[in-house]
Amino acid sequence: MAVDGDETNGGGDSQPSVNTTAEKKKETPILRLSLVPNNEYVSDSYDDPNLVYSSCVLRSLEKYLPPEIFSANRNEKAKFMSDILRKYFSKAKRLKNRRQEFISKYQPSFRGWYDIDPKLFLLPSFLEAISDNTEASFRRIISEPHPSVFVFQMFQPDFYETVIVEVENIRKWAEETNFPIRRPNNMSKHGVVLDHFGLDIFLKKLIQEFIFPLCKVFFPEVCGTMFDSHHGFFIETGEDRDPALGLHMDLSEITLNVCLKKQFEGGEIIFGGTRCKKHKKTKFKDEAIFRYSHIPGQAILHRGRHCHGANTTRTTCYRANMILCCNSSLFREMETYQKDFSDWCGQCAHETKVKESQIIAARREGMIRIEDGARGSTDKPWHVYVRRSKK
Ligand SMILES: [Zn+2]
Quick one: DSSP state of residue 242? Predict the structure, then answer.
């Protein structure tokens, strides 16, 4: 069976190489766009009908040029940016074509995936809570066993079996036709990206109509506007399936993790600390660890930056999960400018608390110095109070 990797790491189209020998490649480093924009940079004009991409697109990308390219002439800069854009557009086009090919050839077990109304799979109690659209109505059906980890039942029981049967059918068909299966990540050998197999419309509707209202209430810092992309996939972990992932953060703002099936004991989900982009490698204290036994039928909603992973010590536990990673490019843009996320990042909150303590200590020290300087001439009651509190 052909396997199509995640394509985020070496699986996608590559830019045409300028150099032909290994020696030249070694001498010339590959230039990449800068992660931080140069807002001082004055853009060139790219109003030229011979250019493939519009002036507006090129000018917005120009401030991310690597410093080595800033001094190049307009045509060289346009070529550099066009090569990068071409890479992404060709990848998107290739994925779109493959999806169309799949839909035109594959006969799904459940024939309604491509235009299904998600309501048909959802529990009446969940639908009623979303329809009422208040925090009180959500809390009626949702528990929060740990801060910002929300657990609830949302799907009817037959939904889980429908997804599992469909994935088995896709695998069998892909095996027979040598159609490449896109995996959720480069390490997965058994997972399936559901979006790639025609479930993207269903999942998008699910997010827009049912997950986003919850996120607006429970994760207000992320959900000012609708998510603009998602990554939906099916994973199986266990002895003869993919190994369970240890602690990690998702490349998402919000993650919905639905347990479709579980066999044997163990296999808890472990949550660690929550971290902003700047602090994502900062360790968290053991007290931040929270273990949750995820049972079939339950959905867990959490921040993608809430460090989490499966308990990897019990490898016999089989689990099948549907994961929906919801992304907001607006939040990511905002995150590059905002410096403090104390309301949800544990490390930001800790640093803010330390700064506040230092300010209070410095003020206190200043007051004591004033009091010591004034001692002898006047001995007001508040001076006595400061001296006593110092002890
Ligand atoms: Zn932080």
Answer: B
Q: Which residues, listed in sequence order, are joined to residue 139 by a DSSP beta bridge?
A: none
**Are 190 and 182 spatial neighbours (Cβ–Cβ below 8 Å)?**
no
More confident residue, 127 or 195: 127
Q: Tens digit of pLDDT for each residue in 356-390?
A: 888 888 888 888 777 777 766 555 555 544 455 55
| pLDDT class of 244 with cuts at 50, 70, 90 | confident
Distance between CA atoms of residues 51 and 71, nearest Å: 20
Distance 332 CA to ligand 1 centre (A): 14
Q: What is the CA radius of gyration of the chain?
A: 27
CA of 348 to the centre of ligand 1 (A): 4
Distance 351 CA to ligand 1 centre (A): 8
Q: Which of 104-113, 192-201, 309-318, 381-390 has the lowest mean pLDDT?
A: 381-390
In 3-state terms the chain splits into helix, strand, coil percentages (rounded to 5) of: 45, 20, 40
Neighbours of 309 (CB within 10 A): 15
Facing residues of 181 across strands? 3
**What are the residues facing 105 on neighbouring strands?**
none
d(CA 38, CA 70): 10
Are the C-beta atoms of residues 261 and 288 closer than 8 Å to each other? no
| pTM of the entire predicted model | 0.71
CA of 219 to the centre of ligand 1 (A): 16
Cβ contacts of residue 277 below 8 Å, gap of 6+? 305, 335
Q: What residue spans of the chain are helical by DSSP H?
A: 22-27, 55-62, 67-70, 74-105, 124-132, 135-141, 157-177, 200-206, 212-218, 329-337, 346-374, 381-390
Q: Please state, as a whole number, how many other Cβ atoms lie within 10 Å of the Cβ of residue 352.
A: 15
277-283: average pLDDT:
87
Q: If you measure from the C-alpha of residue 180 to the centroid of ligand 1, how many angstroms do you get, rounded to a whole number?
A: 39
- Compute the average pLDDT of residues 337-351: 88
- Closest alpha carbon to 167 in 267, 261, 299: 261
Distance in Å, CA 63 to ligand 1 centroid: 26
Work out the angle between the directed axes of helices 346-374 and 381-390 (0-180°, nearest 10). Answer: 130
Q: What confidence tens digit (pLDDT) does each residue in 249-279 have?
A: 999 999 999 999 887 776 689 999 899 988 9
